[in-house]
Amino acid sequence: MTGTGTGSGLAVRDVVVRYPGAGRGAPAVTAVAGVSVDVPVGEVLALLGPSGCGKSSLLRAVAGLEPPASGAVAWDGVDLAAVPVHRRGFGLVFQDGQLFPHRDVAGNVAYGLRGLPRDARAARVAELLDLVGLPGYDRRPVATLSGGERQRVALARSLAPRPRLLLLDEPLSALDRSLRERLADDLRRALVATATTALFVTHDQDEAATVADRVAVMSAGRLLQVDEPEALWRRPASREVAEFLGYRTFLGGGAGAGSGGGSGALAVAAGGWRVLGPADPEPGPATPVRAAVVADRRTRRGRAEVDAVLEPEDVRVTAALPAGGGAVPEPGERVRLAAEAGAVAVVGG
Amino acid sequence: MSTATRTTPTGTGRPGSSARPDGPAAPARAASRPPARAWAVGRVASWTLAAAVPLLFLGTFFAWPVLALVGRGFLPDGALDLSGFADVFSRPRTWRIVGLTLAQGAIGTVMSVLLGVPGAYVLYRCRFPGVGVLRAFVTVPFVLPTVVVGVAFRALLRENGPLGFLHLDGTFAAIVAALVFFNYAVVVRTVGGLWQRLDPRPEQAARSLGASPARAFWTVTLPALTPAIVSAASLVFLFCATAFGTVLVLGGMQYGTVETEIWIQTTQFLDLRAAAVLSVVQVVVVVAALAVAGRARARRERALQLVAPGSSGAGPARPHWAPAVVTAGVLVLLALPLGALLLGSLRTGDGWGLDHYRALGTTGGRNALTVTVWEALGNSLRIAVDATLLALLVGCLVALLVSRRPRRRAARRAVGVLDGVFMLPLGVSAVTVGFGALLTLGHPFGIATDLRSSGILVPVVQAVVAVPLVVRTVLPVLRAIDPRLREAAGTLGAGPGRVLLGVDGALAARSIGLAVGFAFAVSLGEFGATSFLARPDLPTLPVVIFRLIGQPGADNYGMALAASVVLAALTAGVMALAERFRGPAGGEL
Prior knowledge:
The structure holds two protein chains of two kinds.
Chain A: E1 9-19, E2 29-40, E3 44-48, H1 55-63, E4 70-75, E5 78-79, E6 90-93, H2 105-109, H3 118-131, H4 147-159, E7 165-169, H5 177-193, E8 198-202, H6 205-211, E9 214-219, E10 222-227, H7 229-234, H8 239-245, E11 247-251, E12 266-269, E13 273-275, E14 289-300, E15 303-310, E16 316-320, E17 334-339, E18 344-346
Parallel strand pairs in A: 3-8, 3-9, 6-7, 7-8, 13-16
Antiparallel strand pairs in A: 1-2, 1-4, 4-5, 9-10, 11-12, 12-18, 13-17, 14-15, 14-17, 15-16
Helix pairs in contact in A: 3-4
Chain B: H1 25-32, H2 35-74, H3 83-89, H4 92-125, H5 131-143, H6 146-157, H7 172-197, H8 201-208, H9 213-241, H10 245-251, H11 258-267, H12 272-303, H13 321-346, E1 347-348, E2 351-352, H14 355-358, H15 373-403, H16 409-421, H17 430-440, H18 451-454, H19 457-480, H20 483-491, H21 496-525, H22 530-533, H23 541-550, H24 554-581
Antiparallel strand pairs in B: 1-2
Helix pairs in contact in B: 2-12, 2-15, 2-17, 3-12, 4-7, 4-9, 4-13, 5-7, 5-24, 6-7, 6-10, 6-13, 6-24, 7-9, 7-10, 8-9, 9-12, 11-12, 11-17, 13-24, 15-16, 15-19, 15-21, 19-21, 20-21, 21-24, 23-24
């Protein structure tokens, strides 16, 4: 066996995953086109990307559910190609839980604990149900659980055998927004409390930033950038990454006028502009300021906003009004817009 | 090892010995051989074994007898002789029989569908008190032995029977009515099972766009149901076109199917060549019907968005009046033959009484039988237990095999072929199987004792007939299991064996209850093959009933009715029990 990784933990090297074509003679579909990434022990890495970008296929290849067409998956430097799914010691949480319908909550959580004495098993089940915030749910049939409760049970089930690595495949995507936000916090807490190494697949940027230590942005089967959330949002490696992270407006290189995007350009997030009022202090030199013509007015969440067209770039943006109130600019009026400090990124820095 | 004592989440670092409680055996094996190859070899070996058992079983007890019989027709002197085709097809009798078979199948199918679809709506889409009882009642005719159905219709339609004034006894209409009686449940259950789980929102959307209930049904619901209807119709056609016991009892010499004709040619005229030709004709018809059914089923499994029964608040509480009236009428008609059978069994020469039931302890008037009816019942039960166990073993292996979706295309195609092959016994003439077994299975594999006189062939051949039903019951449940559920078990450390047992096994267990019921009922009522193979001193109950109605004397006829009631009660009881044990996810036929 050859060591393919250097440190301890998960090492993915040049993994390619292909699916056979749908019909006879149809070409194979390449879902993952050569991805290399490391997850050191104790770290939570988020795989972030739009649906269909191959992130779930990569996860399945790591789990051993999908044989990679080429490349290697290794743990602590030992290649896993020969190790079947059930001996890898990798837990997996699905989007819709996939609880065993014929077992109750405790029966699901205890599934991976075979070989433990009965009372040790019961204690571990109780411990896990406590951890995920469902104490006393042992005897509940899984059919009576809500969507959020199911995902908590699925998490407890996967954590119970203390997996070397926990794989999470969009575990929160099937839930509604407020529940998702709360569960993302709980998930982070559970992973930290158990010091679990995890690979977390999601298409939601906020979720990735909440749960993970580092975020890997994936598109069309390739990794575009791997970084800590803060660094990622501050310095996205390319316009594609920036767009996926929620940046809408791309300004020419530096604060001045320029070529409109590309290397060294500034990106401003959606909702990152405000109208400079006469009473506002003049912003610093790092803050992009643009002249713009108001195109429209409207209200969002009870606050007045304007749509305006930036004069140098000729792109339409939405800008908030100064906190002090005052007159709302009329359509056709010329205003000055400033980007909020936290909403600006340097692309390809 | 170590889950409980491990302190860090890092694992042990050796792939073969991950931090699993069930790991100890694996590292030793992994050390001696490359584990990937060991796992692959083990998997291929166990699946090969799983395929070999049913293939060997059906090859020996189904394919060989059938091919041997067909071969005797075409290879009379060891040389191929197809003149039999020309000869048999030049007889007007053959064309009449083939025409009757197709007419019977077509008319029986159309009527079953026309009556069964409203029944599916009322019994599976609507909710009212007693619907569960009615659903169970509708199933009763389907599990009745064919001989009993024939006897019940004779009891209803004969000259001094309750409907004797219609003068339908011995007519084509009587045969079709009996076939519809028998197959109504197939349509109701197949279509109803789908209808129950159909998402009602498209229909609601159609209604909100201004469609009348009738238009919403025609344009939205019916198209969604079509695959189930086609699937049920092809199955009904199959059952009608290969009907044996019912037609033999009701049709006499005047009406028949290819199946009864095979029986007559072999047992009455000893014309094996004609029988072989007719067997081939039947196989062609059966394969065509199964192909249609398979295509329809495949489309149905692909295309429909289903919901859990009742989960969508589906269905009107009160059924529309038109289907309700039709269904009520059908239910009364279903009850008539059963009532006539029961009444007839209680009617004695001078009034009413249990005389015929008391006579079941005798061998009949003028010693019509070699054993008492109760002894025949005992034979039937013993044989049914053996046949059920065999059918269950083979059927579950087949279902397991066919439910897999292997990665390799060649393997996937092989699974598809096996799926069709294992369905063949459903339609190949049971008479052919029985007679072929009688001809060929004297000393298979050099076994010293003659299997034909040992009585061992009866449960074996009944199991052959029951296997397709077991497969059809268990397979949908296995196919419906989300593959990710197995993957979840795998990532939790369950090996392939434990996944099979803990996921597939546990989820299919409920449907196995229903499969047991079907297999047991089929075995109790099997007549076509059993009539050839049952030893004269060990007849089964249907064989005894058929003998009794062939004998003169009102007492023997009364005994036949009483024995039919006993057999009917027994099969219905077995099915009721099986239905109780199955879960909400149980498979339909």
